[in-house]
């Protein structure tokens, strides 16, 4: 675009002074757009860093007293990151650990909801489906129930999608052993 604009301004029959004025305003406008874009990207980067810090602090054993304090940090982190798929998946992993430690059914339901939302936001990330299968494995181990139909479909999908990934087979094998 810039090369075409420069060529058009230099090859046209405009007066020399008018060309300089137009070039100056065009360059000032482009510089202003670049500056605004740079500010927006910087602010977004700072938000992500703050969100990463909150998630790290919530999941570090010595940083919080109990999982309820970590849950507050996770909620704040989700607000800061505006529901991006990767952060939803990290929050689901936090609730999966809470369920594994406490057996709290509400934590499991929250993890399942966050995983589903993460999958909806990024349906091509196979690891979100793997985390859903891991959630079901934890539920099967703790509750002694059979895996749900949704998870059976997720297992079939991950096996079809990523045949060369050993993590897929490991996760499915853990589910089968838990059954």
Structural description of this entry:
- 83% of the residues lie in helices and 0% in strands.
- It starts with a helix and ends with a helix.
- The mean pLDDT is 82.
- The chain has 179 residues and is an all-alpha fold.
Compose a concise summary of this entry:
With 179 residues, the chain is mostly helical.
Distance between the termini: 60 Å
- Beta-strand percent range: under 5%
Order of helices and strands: HHHHHHHH
Cα Rg? 25 Å
What ranges have pLDDT less than 50 throughout 5 or more consecutive residues?
A: none
Question: What's the helical proportion of residues?
Answer: over 70%
How many H/I helices? 8
- What gross morphology would you assign? elongated
Main beta-sheet annotation: none
Structural class, please? mainly alpha
Task: Indicate the mean pLDDT.
Answer: 82
Number of strands: 0
Which descriptors apply to this entry?
single chain; 179 residues; mainly alpha; 83% helix; 0% strand
């Amino acid at each position: 675009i810039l090369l075409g604009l420069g060529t058009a301004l230099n090859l046209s029959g405009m007066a020399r002074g008018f060309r300089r004025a137009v070039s100056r305003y065009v360059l000032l406008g482009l510089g202003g757009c670049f500056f605004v874009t740079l500010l927006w990207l910087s602010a977004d980067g700072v938000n992500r860093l703050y969100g990463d810090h909150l998630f790290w602090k919530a999941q570090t054993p010595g940083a919080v007293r109990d999982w309820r304090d970590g849950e507050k940090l996770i909620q704040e982190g989700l607000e800061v990151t505006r529901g991006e798929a990767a952060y939803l998946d990290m929050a689901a992993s936090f609730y999966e650990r809470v369920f594994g430690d406490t057996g709290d059914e509400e934590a499991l339901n929250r993890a399942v909801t966050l995983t589903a939302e993460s999958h909806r936001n990024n349906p091509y990330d196979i690891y979100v489906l793997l985390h859903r299968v891991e959630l079901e494995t934890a539920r099967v181990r703790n509750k002694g129930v059979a895996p749900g139909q949704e998870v059976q479909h997720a297992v079939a999908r991950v096996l079809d999608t990523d045949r060369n990934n050993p993590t897929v087979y490991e996760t499915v094998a853990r589910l089968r052993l838990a059954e």
